[in-house]
Design a protein that fits this description.
Elements lengths: L2 E4 L11 H5 L8 E3 L7 E4 L9 E6 L10 H7 L12 E4 L6 H14 L5 E6 L3 H16 L6 H14 L4 E8 L16 E7 L4 H4 L3 E4 L5 H11 L10 H7 L4 H14 L3 H9 L28 H9 L6 H8 L7 E2 L6 H10 L25 H13 L4 E2 L5 E3 L2 H10 L2 H17 L5 E7 L1 H6 L1 E12 L9 H4 L8 E12 L8 E4 L15 E7 L6 E3 L2 E6 L10 E6 L5 E6 L9 E3 L17 E5 L1
């Protein structure tokens, strides 16, 4: 049995065996940091006791022009102290946001600073891959190779739970949380686990710390592009706008930079190509063999596996057509009720294939009734959550709004079969119309006193409300006899309106969700109250200031004097008329005008009195 130790600070990688350079070994462990051979490694012809520190697996290299991000700080501060128990951290986010880079940066920093004795990097795309890497690590530590990788993994986990060695395990790109059943590393005072995944399943996150990885900030995106194009300053025109176009997605920015450099384009020229909807997203990134930073897939194909996984979840077959609908709405957010409308459910229904045909007498019973979809609103909501579990959409905390990254939308639209593209666009437009009731506008006449100092008044109006019998839920609404066939009833509502102090003539007050309900349980529209200020017999208004004319005949304007004045609020005060006052020059009284609108300490405008 022979052992070769590589203890030289920086050995030449070309002198290492090919299997050592690749980090692959059929019998023993080979650990390499991609592009870094400065740490001691063991290469075994047989098994001997290993030396520390020890690396199992291949830590990816850091990409060109990588930036430190907020998530780097979140990971770095997790190790609270030498004796702290460190929780497992799950880096979750949309494909292409840089989760693997965050984990690789942490692993490299801890390894180089001797903060770990054992580093295991696992590609967790399957249970077999996890078992293989665990078995490799167990054989390195014990010197014994198990024929059964399950048994080897059990021994490794037991050793991790009892050792005082410092260890870090990175489970990269976890595809299926069930693959880690019985294989989660233990929580100890000397160990730390980092998982990168697109998944957000409750079972995955329970008891573990979620680090939500998003896109670059605008400043980070621009700084990254400046770094990538530093040798070509003439190509930086419209760089900020390009970052916006690409939604600040790190993967998209990297591939766009490589594309425009390969083709000699400026940022502005790339934007013109990007804006051309005739070009597919796959045509705006480098060829697969020319991808930068070791990327395995183009940005256009990044989410394909995620979509397949979501579409296989229960309710099966609905996630993909729902994402097709979502690719035609505002990426910044739409109500979830868009996807529970009749138009949306009918589109989802088509994705399940042709329905069973009804012929004969039964087919002619209700020819005028809406087609009953096989998919219900609850199914659509479940499909939305399936997409969220794969980070393809983002739901607000109360699940009332859905957001989709613009590049996910474009990639999805590119994949819609030609015979369904028009239907997807038309169904999305119809769903948007059905998801929300119409807004309403009421005009309200108010006196100057009411607009100046605020007012509370009841207002009544005709509107539509959700049917209490069927609650607008499809398919119940299609058989409901209590509504008009779309889940709504006409009624007259009375609400109390509070007019804030300081409103002006022509202003509109928005009462969110106080107008008519949308069909099929859709959200309510907004009610707008337009203020109409009636003329006042004594005062005229100019913004926050008031003007009035006062009879000064009781005062000798040459000698001056005082005059009583009744203000707009009814309070009486006296003003001093200076000697030799001119009838055409107004007297200014501070703080007797109209309160400023919407301020905690509003203050008031001024009153200008014109003696005559």
């Amino acid at each position: 049995m022979t052992t070769t130790h590589s203890a030289t600070p920086s050995p030449d990688p070309d002198r290492l065996p090919q299997t050592a350079r690749e980090g692959v070994d059929a019998r023993g462990a080979r650990g390499v940091l991609a592009g870094d051979y400065g740490i001691q490694h063991n290469y075994f012809a047989g098994r001997t006791p290993m030396s520390w520190p020890h690396l199992v697996g291949v830590v990816p290299g850091l990409v060109d022009q990588r930036l430190d991000r907020r998530a780097d700080q979140d990971l770095a501060t997790a190790l609270a102290g030498e004796h702290a128990v460190v929780v497992c951290q799950v880096l979750a986010g949309l494909g292409g946001v840089g989760k693997t880079q965050l984990a690789a940066n942490l692993a490299r920093r801890w390894w180089q600073h001797r903060q770990v004795d054992l580093l295991i990097w696992v590609s967790a795309t399957s249970r077999a891959a996890v078992l293989t890497r665990y078995a490799q690590a167990a054989a390195d530590i014990s010197g014994v190779e198990d024929a059964d990788p399950d048994e080897a993994s059990v021994r490794l986990l037991a050793w991790l739970a009892s050792t005082d060695r410092r260890w870090l395990i990175v489970l990269d790109d976890l595809t299926n949380p069930q693959d880690l059943a019985g294989l989660w590393p233990p929580s100890t005072s000397t160990g730390h686990t980092v998982v990168t995944t697109r998944r957000r399943d409750a079972a995955l996150l329970a008891g573990r710390r979620l680090v939500d990885v998003g896109v670059f900030t605008p400043a980070e995106a621009v700084a990254y592009l400046h770094g990538k194009l530093a040798g070509h300053p003439a190509r930086l025109d419209e760089v900020e706008q390009l970052a916006v176009d690409l939604g600040y997605l790190p993967l998209a920015l990297a591939q766009a930079a490589a594309y425009l450099l390969d083709r000699g384009l400026t940022c502005g020229e790339y934007r013109k190509r990007f804006a051309d909807r005739r070009r597919r997203l796959a045509e705006l990134v480098p060829e697969p063999q020319a991808l930068p930073d070791g990327h395995q897939t183009t940005v256009a194909a990044t989410w394909s596996l995620s979509i397949e996984l979501a579409d296989a979840m229960i309710p099966a077959g609905l996630a993909r057509p729902l994402l097709e609908l979502a690719s035609h709405v505002d990426p910044n957010g739409v109500p979830t009720t868009v996807f529970t409308t009749l138009a949306a459910l009918l589109y989802l229904d088509r994705g399940l294939g042709p329905p069973p045909r009804t012929t004969g007498f039964l087919a002619s019973l209700r020819p005028s009734r809406p087609v009953r979809p096989r998919v219900g609103a609850a199914d659509a909501r479940d499909a939305l959550h399936c997409l969220q579990r794969l980070s393809l959409v983002a739901l607000t905390g109360d699940a009332s709004e859905v957001r989709v990254h613009a590049l996910v939308q474009r990639a999805t639209r590119d994949q819609i079969p030609p015979d369904r593209r028009a239907a997807a666009e038309q169904s999305a437009a119809a769903a948007l119309r059905q998801s929300r009731g119409m807004d309403a506008l009421l005009r309200l006449n108010l006196s100057l006193e009411q607009t100046a100092f605020g007012h509370e008044t009841p207002i009544s109006f005709d509107t539509a409300i959700t049917c209490g019998t069927c609650q607008g839920e499809i398919p119940a609404v299609l058989d409901c006899r209590g509504c008009e066939g779309d889940g709504r009833l006409r009624t007259r509502r009375t609400i109390t309106l509070k007019i804030p102090a300081g409103v002006e003539d022509g202003m509109r007050i928005r009462l969110a969700n106080q107008s008519e309900a949308g069909p099929y349980g859709g959200a309510c529209g907004d009610l707008y109250i337009e203020v109409h200020e009636l003329p006042h017999e004594r005062f005229t208004r100019a913004g926050h200031d008031l003007h009035c004319i006062l009879d000064g005949s009781s005062v000798d304007l040459t000698a001056g004097g005082t005059l009583p004045v009744v203000g707009l609020d009814g309070a009486t005060f006296r003003i001093r008329v200076p000697p030799r006052a001119h009838p055409g020059i107004p007297i200014r009284v501070r703080g007797q005008g109209v309160p400023h609108l919407g301020q905690t300490d509003p203050g008031r405008g001024d009153l200008y009195i014109m003696p005559r």
